[in-house]
């Protein structure tokens, strides 16, 4: 089991939570970013060429059965869903077979509106509640699989 982070749009606090969990549970952590992002970490960082979906392609390439994916990209989530132990959105909820169709549909509708010149609302300012929810999700998966105390 490894934690794989789609690092291009991942908030710094989410990376910190993942690093803390990786230390506590002694598991591997990999952050994948493109050349435009400068990231410092004690864990492995894979830097790929700049390009549309280049980070996604690399994650799909290295992703193994039982890994945990941290992303806000629903397309990437759908590609790894069959192999993932868990996929956790950076906003603090699980992406799974029960909600992936609705998430992909909402993404598609937003793209259509923007292509036709319309506007869609962007993400709201990050809240502490999202960090707390993310941490609860991550520690829930880790404690269930690795048998340690749950985060509260």
Write the layout of secondary structure elements.
Elements: E1 2-6, H1 12-25, E2 28-34, E3 44-48, H2 54-62, E4 68-71, H3 74-80, E5 86-89, E6 93-94, H4 100-115, H5 128-146
Helix pairs in contact: 1-5, 3-4
How would you summarize this macromolecular structure in one to three sentences?
The chain has five helices and six strands. By secondary structure, the protein is an alpha/beta fold.
Describe this structure in words.
The chain is α/β, with parallel strands linked by helices and 152 residues long. The chain has one domain (2-96, 126-146): Rossmann fold. The chain has helices at 12-25, 54-62, 74-80, 100-115, 128-146; strands at 2-6, 28-34, 44-48, 68-71, 86-89, 93-94. A 6-stranded mixed β-sheet has the order 3-2-1-4-5-6, sandwiched between helices. α1 (12-25) links the parallel β1 (2-6) and β2. α1 packs parallel to α5 and α3 (74-80) runs antiparallel to α4 (100-115). It starts with a strand and ends in a 6-residue tail after the last helix.
């Amino acid at each position: 089991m490894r934690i794989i982070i789609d690092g291009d749009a991942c908030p710094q606090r989410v990376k910190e939570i993942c690093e803390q969990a990786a230390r506590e549970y002694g598991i591997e952590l990999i952050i994948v970013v493109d050349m435009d992002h400068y990231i410092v970490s004690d864990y492995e960082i894979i830097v790929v060429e700049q390009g549309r979906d280049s980070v996604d392609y690399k994650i799909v390439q290295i992703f193994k059965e039982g890994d945990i994916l941290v992303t806000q990209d629903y397309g990437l989530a759908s590609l790894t869903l069959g192999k993932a132990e868990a996929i956790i959105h950076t906003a603090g909820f699980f992406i799974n077979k029960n909600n992936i169709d609705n998430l992909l549909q909402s993404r598609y509708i937003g793209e259509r509106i923007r292509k036709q010149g319309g506007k869609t609302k962007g993400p709201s300012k990050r809240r502490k509640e999202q960090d707390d929810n993310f941490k609860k999700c991550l520690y829930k998966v880790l404690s269930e699989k690795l048998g340690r105390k749950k985060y509260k």
